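> example.struct
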């Protein structure tokens, strides 16, 4: 059974940084395309960043230059480093993996507030 578990969310001040983690069981990130999405209160879920099996990365325009997606093969984890966080980055952040079908984690809440 595939499970994705996010962690690393929390309360951060504007301009601060957070690193989100996604751990997988039943799946090896090295062999799948993985992404981060987010859903702000009252809004639909939106794409943040992706890393393909080949290691290619892509970012949402709104986050480009402020986030970095990476993968740790030895620990089978995917990370999202977020810097210079803004109020509008407040959202639940979800890990997503595509492996025959799509798999979602339950999300981790990021709150940017002063």
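> example.seq
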């Amino acid at each position: 059974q595939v499970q994705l578990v996010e962690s690393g969310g929390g309360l951060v001040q504007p301009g601060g940084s957070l690193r989100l983690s996604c751990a997988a069981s039943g799946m090896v990130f090295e062999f799948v395309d993985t992404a981060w999405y987010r859903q702000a209160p009252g809004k639909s879920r939106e794409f943040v960043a992706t890393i393909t099996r080949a290691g290619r990365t892509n970012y949402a325009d709104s986050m480009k230059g402020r986030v970095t997606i990476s993968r740790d093969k030895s620990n089978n984890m995917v990370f999202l480093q977020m810097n210079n966080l803004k109020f509008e980055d407040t959202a639940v952040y979800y890990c997503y993996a595509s492996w025959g079908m799509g798999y979602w984690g339950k999300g981790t809440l990021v709150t940017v507030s002063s």
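> remarks
The radius of gyration is 13 Å.
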